[in-house]
Design a protein that fits this description.
The complex is a heterodimer. By secondary structure, chain A is an alpha+beta fold. Chain A has helices at about 5-25, 45, 60-80, 100-110, 145-170, 195-200, 270-280, 315-330, 345-375, 375-400, 405-435, 440-470, 475-510; strands spanning about 40, 50-55, 85-90, 90-95, 120, 125, 130, 135-140, 175-180, 180-190, 205-210, 220-225, 230-235, 240, 245-255, 260-265, 285-290, 295, 310-315, 335-345, 405. In chain A, strand 9 and strand 10 (about 180-190) form a beta hairpin. Chain B is α+β, with helices and mostly antiparallel strands. In chain B, helix 7 packs parallel to helix 9 (about 255-280). In chain B, about 50% of the residues are buried. Classes of the chains: A alpha+beta, B alpha+beta.
Chain lengths: ~525, ~300
Amino acid sequence: MLYFSKLRIVFITIFSLLFVLIASSNLFKFDDSFFDKKINLGLDLQGGSYLLLEIDNDPVIEQKLQNLTTTIRNFFKEKDIRINNIKIDNQNIFFNVSDENKQQVIEIFEEENSEINPYYPRFKSHQLEIEDTGLNLKINFSRQGLINLKTSSQDQAIEIVRRRVDEVGTNEPNILKRGNNRILVELPGLDDPMRVKSLLGKTANLTFRFVTQNEDERFGVEKLEFEDGTQEAVVSKRIIISGENLLDAQPKMDTQNNQTIVSFTLDRVGAKRFGKATSTGIGKKLAIILDGKIISAPVVRDTIASGAGQISGGFTFQSATDLALLLRSGALPAPLEIIEERTVGPDLGQDSINAGMIALSIGFLLVIIFMFVKYRFFGLITNVTLIINLFILLGILTLFEATLTLPGIAGIILTVGMAVDANVLIFERIKEELKDETNNILAFDGGYTKSRTAIIDANITTLLAAVILFFMGSGPVKGFAVTLGVGIFTTLFSVYFIARLFTSLYVAKNKNNGKLI
Amino acid sequence: MIAFNKYYNHFNILSSALIIISLLLLIFKGLNFGIDFKGGTLIELRSNDTKINVSSLRDKFSQMNLGDVSVKKFGSDNDFLIKFENKDNKKNIIEEIKVNLDKSFGNSYDFRRVENVGPKVSAELLKSGVIAISLSLAIMLIYIWVRFEWQFSLGAILALFHDVIVTLGVFSLFSLEINLSIIAAVLTIVGYSMNDTVVIFDRVRENLRKYSDIKIFELTNISINETLSRTIITSATTLLALLAIYFFGGEILKGFSLAMILGVVFGTYSSIYIANTVLVRLRVSQKTVLREDDSK
């Protein structure tokens, strides 16, 4: 166990120096891109916001089922099958058909290349399930159908979220999918997340619809509140143009009356529809509706054929900027809810870094003094090894650009405390060997060999705990698992290569000087 | 040589009592779950005005209809930790609070940290915490089973149960807050306690192979003594590191390091007085390990 070949010594030296170099790239700037890596600071250390958003898919499902009732009615009409009493209840569609058609309808839904019910061969599942309840036929989304629907609304939502966050212009936001109905947004360095939160909390569903007095219009009507909550108006459900028709939106200052407005331009289809509606609707009020609330309802005075218009509604410059931003980035497919938020101010982050570093230095110092007092020369070996171990640990974290959190720093301090364990096991074993062995080399060799199983077992148990923590933990706690886990490997490396190398060189030189430890 | 084995019975009674008391505490007093597991809102507020203190803050917050509000000093005299349930999960609650506080305190304060955990998330976090701890215990059990005989596995797992339950018992007794980092601490305790037990077991097994004429009662004592200086040194260095975190690592890590300190103390104790006594009570002998060697 004590013999090291020249090649091995060279390898160990180069390896250790390499990681010391990589670790020090956190302090200095290197031109070489390989060395110019840094440990990322977690949100709890650099300050910032962590937002977990959940997509409320219920409105999407309702909307899809609503559309489906129309599709079903039209589809079977062509096949001369009458659909009766079609209704939606609790995310199911119910309808009646005559008894002789029942089997045929079910077959149409269940055949593999059904025109009305897409089949996913990969999952051996249709989008929809049909069931004969006896009273009527029931249709609902299959498990796979729901998963597809959720995934696609998540894909759309993450795109919109990204656009909105980018527009606010925070540095290096991190936007990730979580499960199939959640989005994780990490905003480093953001002191006040309120603006982002309010931007993400809005669906931004924009529609232009006419205010009507005619209660029984063909498309149906609904009563909506104004945004300031002071008035109500009855508007038609017929949508003239929607947010999808928007090409651009910008906040502007209306020079005539010194008001802040949002000006917008429409795409071709939108411009055409807008032109037609404004020409036939002169004198009527056109309501501009965002997320079910009327922003304003100006009277149409002229035909607007240019495809450009403006929204006024008592905006401040900030609210106009935000509205324009929301309109540019598009509507979310479904409302988002912030179900978890963690925000740390930058000064608390800095305080945490300072506290962590002080704790690390003091912990390190205490351990080093303790080891030196206890083992003298071999304590010194352990301490030098411990320092190199720390550098290798930081080097690996840097190399993988891992995220360091406050619990992560705690993990490093704990590694320092536990890293000496392996060396202690070895030294104690050597002491025992030396009780009835006068040959230093044999005693040291025996000490290393006989302590090995205990060291490996002991480290594997800690590693297992770290691995579980990594997979089950979240956020900052994950950082703890990373440093603790990586620390085990670096500890084993430094104990078995670096400390053993020092020990073997020392023992070879002093083998005849009596009991060495 | 210290006669640890003289006190096996005494300490077994003590351990059983500790476990029973802890279980009773956990059942009847329960744990003080933080917002991570209960849901709700937490604000860490720093003031630079002596007008702001616990009672004035409590006054202001109780006027805001937030349900049960707790206001506490947090570390220094001008840092406060405010927690409330946020039952209706109101969206713009932080903004509303800011507007309200601005009215009375102007800008002489600052939110240093805001955490808001919805009921769904807190339920999930609790579930995954429980799963993580159970999973780690199960994996340790299996690992020791693979590496040693089942008697050892049982001894190690009883020691682990003891450490986890008594640590949680202390948290319950003093109503210390259980949050995500405490789960991390408990998992690390599991790893550490196991680590400690394994080192002694490894020696027990080695001695079992070496001596056929020494009874397990004596043999465990020999093994404990042989590994004792290592046990003390490693516990000492680990505790030194943990004490450094506890005293200098800032308020946020206090609970975490306290749990770890307790865990290291209990873990060291249980390796000696629980894990080994199980071997004694199960009458482990040289046959136990030789049979294992044959089957390999």
